[in-house]
Description:
alpha/beta; Rossmann fold; two-stranded antiparallel ribbon; 12 helices
Amino acid sequence: MRQSAEINFPSGAGSYAVTRWPGPGVAESTPTVIAAHGITANGLAWAPVAETLPEVDFVAPDLRGRGHSRDVGGPYSIGAHADDLIRTLDHLGVERATLMGHSMGGWVAAVAAVRYPERFGGVVLVDGGLGYPLPEGTDLDQLLDSLLGPAMAKLRTVFTSREEFLAPWRNHPSLVDVYSPTVEAYQERDIIGTEPELRSACILDAVRDDAADELQNPDVIGAIHRLPMPAVFLYAERGLLNEPAGLYSPEVVAAAKLADAGVDVRFVPDVNHYSILLGDRGIAAVAEAVRALL
C-alpha cells in the first residue's frame, strides 16, 4: 500500500488538513495532482485513485467544514474552496499541478482553473462540475435530501457506535460492490465524538451553503464552459444510489456542448456516482484521464 502523510496548516478558526501521497524521485521532476472531493466527503475518498497513480505527487485536502478541516469555519462557497486549493499548493511549495474534482469538487476544480489558470496544466472533472439552473422556488433542503439520501441523513444523526455509523455505508447500494478497507478508512475519517455520541464531521451549514453556490451562482455554473486549459469530463452511467439514471444523462451532457468549450467528454459505463471513484473500472478511467493530461 502506498504510504501517505497528513499535513496541517493554520487556516481560519482551525487548521486545514491535507493528505499527501508523495511521488517517486526528485520532487522537482514529479508531477503534482491536487484533488477536491464531494460535498459530504473528505480527502481519503481519493485514496484508491492515488494508489493507482504512483508516479505522481497526489494531494487531497479535506475541504473546509469536512473531515479534519471541520474547524476552519466559513465562509463556505465554491470560490472559498478554490482559494483553499491555491493556499494548499503555496504551503507545499508547488507552483503548478493537474487539478481534479469529484461531484461538488468538480465545481471547485472548474472555478479554481478559471481563477488561477497559471497554476494548473489541466483539469479532470469526475461526475461533477456541469451545472444546470434550478427551477424557481426549489426547496434546497428537499433537493439535497432527495439527491444525497443517506449522506444527508448522517449529518442529522447521533450514532451510538462506530459500527452503527459504518453499517449504512457497508450496505449502501452504490458501495456494496466496491467496499474495501480503503473505503472504510475514508468513512471512518468522517467520525467525530466518543461513543455513545458519534457524529459526522461534515458541517450541515457548509453543505447547504456550498450546494446553494454550485446550483445557483452563474459564475460557478458557467465555469466549465470557460476552462482555459485542457480538460476532461467523466460521467457515470448510474446514479448516487446506483439507480439506472446517472446524475448526468447523455442528453443533458450532449445539450451542454462541452466539446465546443474544448472539454473532452468521456462516458464511463457500469459505474455509479461513487464507484467511478472507488471501484476498479472507475478508477482506471480516472487514472487514464489524468495521465492524458500529464
